[in-house]
Design brief:
The structure is a homodimer of 329-residue chains.
Chain A (H helix, E strand, L loop, with lengths): L1 H15 L7 E9 L1 E2 L4 H23 L4 H14 L19 E7 L4 E8 L5 H11 L4 E3 H10 L13 H12 L1 H4 L13 E6 L5 E7 L9 E2 L9 E4 L3 E7 L1 H6 L2 H12 L3 H14 L4 E6 L5 E2 L6 E8 L5 E3 L2 E2 L2
Parallel strand pairs in A: 2-15, 4-5
Antiparallel strand pairs in A: 1-6, 1-13, 3-4, 3-7, 6-7, 9-10, 10-11, 11-12, 13-14
Helix pairs in contact in A: 2-3, 3-4, 9-10
């Protein structure tokens, strides 16, 4: 039903705007997929969340809004869902509380904002946006970032806001198997639903945003690739917009997003080829995951080396489409 | 006197090792320079520190040690000096305490460790090394990173350990002019002595390390480019090793280190050309600063857009050489 509505809207847009006013949006709900044993109601919630996130971004882009507003809004919807690894529903660290990372970048002017190791911010991507718009800085972390939030009028929420039964269970399982997971070469990484969005707006501006709770059972204070510009998040007009998901440590060490864009910028590779090659390179280095990557024309590549990746896309040329596949738990 | 000794050692090495066993080390003590009004004794301390850092790294490299050991040691010497913006002597944030960032990267295997927003760690680069060697993570921040330090047997030091009269004075001056400095387009940035090192060892392995207190009067929780892989620090065998210094926010937004290396890797630019072009690009974007950049053969480029940059180099082919220039305060 929802799909039919979206199709109708897309066709309407194709008629209203000339070619140079195309817009495009892609989102991901994380590398990995939906565990086969997840209750049907929760699978439905995940599907509904991806559809709602796409629709929220679509509404902004199709009415002439900016790509940076669209990616922020789409990510906020996913942060609020309670069923993805970002905002409410984020995974828990070794100490049992959520620590949240996010970034947003505007490809028009290379401006960026990012936050990491937050414990009391419901919408990390919103705070990243405030860092970008209202501070001279790019990255703020931990208690200092939350102090900035309060200065900006953002209310804090208790740590319990983020905790779900599912994530408590994930942590217990992970700690039970800790003897084999907390070593250098065996990252305690189970791909679960980092979220992100990339977009092109009618003016031709690219943007990207990513938000995550990181790894289940991560060390207190660990920061992954999501909030790091050029690792998990990057946008540059005329070149690319990227949001990654996966084994964050490997994505950092190989500057995943920056390398993908450098291949497009310097080697004139297509976004499909560049993104695919980088994901293969990361896999060879021991890091499974995926990314959504958009080129200057709004074309989207969504390569992944994990079993699958929760994802969706919609544009002025195509109807909304989501992919939610189940995997062995 | 010291210079003569170093020359002697270098010549000795040239005779002892064949061409494929060349080693090379470069360090920086930050973009900017020594304020003209700095007491002569402190200027001498800065010179002595750079010489001592070079010598410590040289001893490791000339006796067959690794580049990663050499850059860590050189940076530790600078962190301990009390006269550069890293470790003891780091600048103070708006709240009046130091928050320290550092990173280290091994070009042989792309392994990296980084720490940010530390308040009680005397040698941030040493903790970054422990994150790389003894954790499955790359970046740890704030309280969680200090918890990791304690787990690893690293003693904490009081906040007062870092504070010097000079930095207290810098902060007072900065706060007095805050009305004009804390805006998006007017970064409260005075170039003062971030430190870093890059090295090539006899085995052909590159490494890089950077350590800093960041910006005087920065917001509590602000993290700059130094600890971010691909922004202020990066190393990749066969391509480059980079340590940057300057207006960190701009270096992050343009992935300064990753872009420099991408130009070498994909466009086959020389390290001189790549580093120079990136520093020019950052300047055009509003970010003054500099970097030390080493190519696979140990050749060093040291471009800067600031008035000068404190720097030094030594290699199996050349004697130790430092540059410490004064600038208008």
């Amino acid at each position: 039903m929802l799909r039919i509505v979206l199709t109708f809207v897309s066709v309407g847009l194709l008629q209203s705007y000339p070619a140079q006013s195309e817009w495009s949006l892609a989102i991901h709900g994380g590398a990995g997929g939906v565990p086969k044993d997840l209750p049907a109601a929760e699978v439905q919630q995940i599907k509904d969340t991806l559809r709602k996130a796409l629709d929220a971004g679509r509404q902004i882009l199709s009415s002439g809004g900016t790509s940076v507003d669209a990616v922020e809004k789409a990510v906020r919807v996913m942060e609020d869902s309670g069923v993805l690894n970002a905002g409410r529903g984020a995974v828990l660290n070794h100490k049992g509380f959520a620590e949240l990372d996010a970034a947003i970048m505007n490809g028009r002017d290379h401006k960026a904002g990012a936050v990491a190791a937050l414990r009391h911010i419901a919408n990390p991507v919103g705070l990243a946006r405030l860092v970008m718009d209202r501070s001279p800085h790019v990255l703020m972390v931990a208690e200092g970032a939350e102090e900035f939030a309060l200065e900006q009028g953002v209310a804090l929420v208790p740590e319990t806001y983020f905790v779900t039964e599912r994530r408590r269970h994930d942590l217990e399982q992970e700690i039970a198997s800790e003897h084999k997971s907390l070593t250098q070469n065996n990252l305690p990484w189970h791909p679960v639903g980092t979220v992100g969005a990339v977009a092109l707006d009618e003016k031709g501006d690219l943007a990207a945003a990513t938000s995550t709770g990181g790894l289940t059972n991560k060390h207190f204070g660990r920061v992954g690739d999501s909030p790091l510009i050029g690792a998990g998040t990057y946008a540059e007009n005329g070149v690319c917009a990227i949001s990654a998901t996966g084994a964050g440590e490997v994505f950092i060490r190989y500057t995943a997003a920056a390398d993908t864009c450098a291949r497009v910028r310097y080697r004139k590779e297509s976004i499909d080829s560049a993104a695919k090659e980088v994901i293969a390179l990361l896999k060879a280095a021991g890091g499974d995951g995926g990314m959504i990557a958009m080129d200057a024309s709004g074309h989207v590549a969504m390569p992944y080396s994990s079993q699958t990746m929760l994802r969706g896309e919609v544009s002025s040329r195509s109807q909304a489409h989501i992919v939610v596949e189940t995997v062995e738990p």
